[in-house]
Design goal:
The complex is a heterodimer of chains A (386) and B (256). With 386 residues, chain A is mainly alpha-helical. Helices cover 76% and strands 4% of the residues of chain A. In chain B, helix 6 packs across helix 7. The chains are: A mainly alpha (386), B alpha/beta (256). Chain A: One of its GO terms (cellular component) is ATP-binding cassette (ABC) transporter complex.
Chain lengths: 386, 256
Amino acid sequence: MSNAQIEIQLIAALVAIACAIPGSFLVLRKMAMISDAISHSILPGIVIGFFITQDLNSPVLILLAALTGIITVVLVEYIQNTGLVKEDTAIGLVFPTLFSIGVILIAKNANDVHLDVDAILLGELAFAPFDRLLISRVDVGPKSLWIIGCILIITITLLIAFFKELKVSTFDAGLAASLGFSPTLIHYGLMSISSITSVGAFDAVGAILVVALMIAPAASAYLITNNLKRMLVYAISFGVFSAIAGYWLAHALDASISGSITTMLGLVFLSVYLFAPNKGVIAVLYREKQQRTEVLLLTFLLHLKNHTEETERHVNHLNEHINWGKVRSKTILDLALKNNMIQFNKNIVALTEKGDAFTTQAIDYIITNEDGQIEDMKDDFFLFRG
Amino acid sequence: MSQQVDKTKTEKTGAIAVQVDDLTVAYNYKPVLWDIDLEIPEGVLMAIVGPNGAGKSTLIKSILGILKPIAGSVNIYGKSYKKQRHLVAYVPQKGSVDWDFPTTALDVVTMGTYGSLGWIKRPGQKEKKEALEALEKVGMLPFKNRQISQLSGGQQQRIFLARALVQNASIYFMDEPFQGVDATTEIAIINILKELRKAGKTVIVVHHDLQTVPEYFDWVTFLNVKKIATGPVKDIFNDDNLTKTYGINYKVSIQE
């Protein structure tokens, strides 16, 4: 790997981490779309900042653009609070307006090669290593790397300091307010960080990828954990993985880096969506099938317990009486047998002691409506699942 | 008035826990609460009753500073809510939060300790111990590591109650704690509320089931945008006030 390649991957990875942190909270707050709005509407801020500073990497430009991000949020909330339109409509009104102001400003100054709409939408990570930061004429690395590094340090410091406040205000804003942690303050803090991160990442990966890096890793992480800290760790890991894998995909295909990273993010989400242990599509389908079988087994056992007369419990009669097909009856019979719930005596089915205990307890829980306890009980009694 | 309250504060008995003066709250120019004057004595278990849209939750939220009133003031033991925050615990409506949030029962209860910690400081062993004790009190200790979406409605409500208990407050505000819970949980919750009253705490509950008011509460406030009446259940919980509040001829058999 060349130095430039390492630098590009490093920048992409740091951008991914910086985006995944605020992104996780945006996803939990159901505000994913606001990151889309911010990342587009910072454009006029960047353009105006560029006119003033003539330097895309100036801190003044970053602050100016971040301010536009905050203005976006304020405008969206203002329009929403009039009660005339819903939040998604308000977002759809504000950001294209601001973005188009930026587009017009660029077009009016088209002679400037450094700012063009393509680069703003998609970024140009491949060029990032060419713009070096010189301190006393010593080359200390690409400017983008330093900018995103600084933003990342600020984000992580704030995350560690205010983790508890972010958590409580995201979960229960009312409680946060009553405890004295102003949800408004925390909200705008998060919006500021999202804006600054968007600006910092913008140059490297473009307006569209910023959104993908904020939302896709967080959404994937949300599907595989029930713990906020782990969700952040997973989101960061997915982001970094996609950033680096995306770079090599672009390398192999000779395609756009930001496009390849976004593709990787999509693939990561798709695999998590399909294969996540609890919430994944396949796991859900499997669990539904299992639950169906368990309900059938329970029905069968209850039937046996309810009927002492032998005619009701004869193997051949069971098919007719419970009104199940041959295959289903056989599956359930086998399952009950495997779990030692029933025994045969000359084709008469009877509950074993274990089966009787299980059924009694199940009836008890069904009557008292303790659904959760039935689930626990199944774990105790079932060795083999359907 | 407020000076009197300050004096009585030292003796506790007979003190006014919550005092609301001329409180008016409006959403988009439409008043939801109109000129509410309310004194809640210390140590009562009080129900706030009224029809839908009467402003019951709004009253609690504006006492707690979550909503900004357009007029009026609220005092907790004679001082503003901001200064007395540590004396107050709040149980919001169960539906007000996202129960799919990635967190456990224990973690939600621990959030109750955040107020005493203040900004930045993290909860430690002491806070965890307090949270576990509160979980024990509401009978939810076996579920401490459950993800909150895996809990039943009644269990979720108990978690909310435990979170308020851990705040070790003097005044408890609860927004419909009996909504969507089964009979067992309802009894468990009301027993805890009665214990709180026995310990000298003031408990204020937004309540919907008029039948249980005389059985559960000793104090009641009738609310319908304006305050209709407030006082001891045995004195004012009658058909007259119910009719004034609900606007239809209301008959409730009051158990003596």
